[in-house]
Write a structure and sequence with these properties.
Helix content: 25-40%
Strand content: 15-25%
Number of helices: 7
Order of helices and strands: HEEEEHHEEHEHEHEH
CATH class: Alpha Beta
Bound molecules: hypoxanthine
Shape: globular
């Protein structure tokens, strides 16, 4: 369903440079892109394969930034399954970016933590995920590539690179397993206890569909989450979208420093 209009516009704006890395910025994290004077900004409305609906706390712009001979594509805003029940909401955008050269995807998100030591504001590198939703964005795809292996969904080298970047930028970086809940309602305390028993450190309403789609497209993946709250039942405060946006925005600066250090290092070492 990729339209030539998306690819044509992307190619024109890229001016001959292939995209190397996609960075998806989650709820409240738009500031992480730190838009620069030479960046090329494209509104999702001009890109038919990009998500058109918005959730508060989510922008709808693509920022293309030249870095050496390549470009970084920052997605300010994503579509979620909970918006209209479409797990493939990001499929067209990711396929178009892959067609423009993208090899890697760094996905960011806000999450609720099931662990006492992962407090609001903590940055967590995703080591793996649990998709317990019964939903998969590759349902309905008819080629054999749909049977994509998820054994190494989160790339070991990119993870090591993010740890190195965190060290360089002097930013504490934890590790955890992310479990996808469809949302938009938050979890019950019983669901949170179940998730913890199953090995989940973080709970969220995004990321997993994009990671599956990216692996299908052959992209190497890394994931970073900012903890915005302790999950339901683990604190006196009930999780809320307001709080998610507020805490994510507070942590955006730290996340921006970490991602900038990672991209700089990645450019030097390939
Ligand atoms: N649960 C699910 N998604 C979230 C949460 C949560 O507690 N916090 C931020 N995103």
């Amino acid at each position: 369903m990729r339209s030539t209009a998306t690819i044509d516009l992307l190619r024109e704006r890229l001016g001959g440079r292939p995209i190397e890395t996609i960075v998806i910025l989650g709820t409240g994290l738009g500031e992480v892109a730190r838009i620069q004077p030479n960046d090329c900004i494209v509104d999702y409305r001009d890109l038919p394969d990009f998500p058109q609906a918005r959730v508060s706390g989510h922008d709808g712009r693509l920022v293309l930034r030249a870095q050496g001979t390549h470009c970084i594509a920052f997605l300010l805003g994503r579509a979620h399954f909970y918006e209209n029940g479409d797990a493939r909401a990001m499929a067209g955008a990711l396929a178009a970016l892959a067609e423009c050269g993208a090899k890697k995807m760094l996905v960011t998100c806000a999450s609720g933590s099931t662990r006492a030591d992962l407090v609001p504001g903590a940055l967590v590198l995703l080591r793996d995920h649990i998709n317990f939703s019964g939903i998969n964005p590759l349902i309905g795809v008819s080629d054999d590539r749909r049977f994509v292996s998820m054994s190494h969904a989160y790339d070991g080298e990119l993870a090591a690179g993010l740890h190195q970047a965190a060290k360089t930028a002097d930013i504490p970086l934890h590790e955890g397993i992310y479990m996808w809940f469809s949302g938009p309602s938050f979890e019950t305390p019983s669901e949170v206890r179940m998730a913890r028993t199953f090995g989940a450190d973080l709970l969220g309403m995004s990321t997993v569909p994009e990671v599956i789609l990216a692996r299908y497209l052959g992209l190497r993946v890394a994931g970073l989450s900012i903890v915005t709250n302790h999950a339901a039942g683990l604190s006196d405060l009930a999780p809320s979208h307001q709080e998610t946006k507020r805490v994510a925005a507070q942590g955006a600066d730290k996340m921006a420093q970490l991602i900038a250090a990672f991209l700089e290092q990645d450019e030097k070492h390939g």
